Amino acid sequence: MAPTKVSADTGELSADVTADVRAWRELLARHADLTCALDRALQAGHSLGMSEYEVLERLAELPDHSSKIATIAKSVHLSQSALSRVIARLENDGLVTRDVCTADRRAVIVCLTKEGLRRQAEALPTQRQVLADRLHAPLVKSCDPSD
Hints:
This protein is mainly alpha-helical. It is about 55% helix and about 10% strand. The protein has 5 helices and 3 strands. Strands 1-3-2 form a 3-stranded antiparallel sheet. The longest helix is centred in the N-terminal third of the chain and has 28 residues, at about 20-45.
């Protein structure tokens, strides 16, 4: 299927739609396209959502494979409540554990398990392939199941 170009200039635009607005809309469209493509590929091949994969990848990159929840939230750009739900799913699947931080009892540390490290390593080529295929390609309609 040939890609369908997504344009910020569909139809008649009002005079106040500037180049910045068009660039912003293109950025949003690219983000939506990539997010949907990553979610589909990671779910189909590895039973992981994009946010779940991102958390696993951030932890896998750290020398001790662990981090405070607040630090992870900043790097994956999720609210702490959204991240808590993602971590709960990962914990239920045995991919991470949660522990109280000994240095700051108010903080929670998330630790990648061996199974989490294995699943992240298996999913990495899928994530990288989607990025290679779509990050710089012409935008296609977002979340189209026939993509």
